[in-house]
């Protein structure tokens, strides 16, 4: 239980460190379960931009969690 709380805190901290664009993509994809195409429509950007933002958002979060 304690490990789960620590992991949750790490993920929350990593999310808060993301840029607003990256946070928005993570929120739409993981919390609102939107597809890449749906995100592109909602944000008014090409689907390639959504994929790129997802890539860098996940990379940044992974680096922060690993560093902790």
What does this structure look like?
By secondary structure, this protein is an all-alpha fold. Helix content is 84%, strand content 0%. It has four helices and no strands. Helix 1 (2-17) packs across helix 4, helix 2 (20-31) packs across helix 4 (47-67) and helix 3 (36-43) crosses helix 4 (47-67). The longest helix has 21 residues, at 47-67.
Arithmetic mean pLDDT: 90
Please count the beta strands (DSSP E, at least 2 residues each): 0
Distance between the first and last residues' Cα:
18 Å
User: Beta fraction of the residues?
Assistant: under 5%
Rg over alpha carbons: 13 Å
- Secondary-structure-based class equals mainly alpha
Q: How do the helices and strands follow one another from N- to C-terminus? A: HHHH
Write the layout of secondary structure elements.
Layout: H1 2-17, H2 20-31, H3 36-43, H4 47-67
Helix pairs in contact: 1-4, 2-4, 3-4
What is this structure, in a nutshell?
The protein has about 70 residues and is mainly alpha-helical. About 85% of the residues lie in helices and about 0% in strands.
């Amino acid at each position: 239980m304690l490990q789960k709380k620590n992991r949750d805190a790490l993920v929350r901290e990593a999310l808060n460190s993301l840029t607003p664009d990256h946070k928005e993509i993570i929120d739409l994809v993981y919390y609102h379960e939107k597809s890449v195409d749906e995100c592109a429509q909602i944000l008014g950007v090409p689907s390639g931009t959504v994929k790129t933002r997802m890539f860098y958002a996940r990379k940044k979060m992974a680096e922060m969690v690993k560093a902790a």
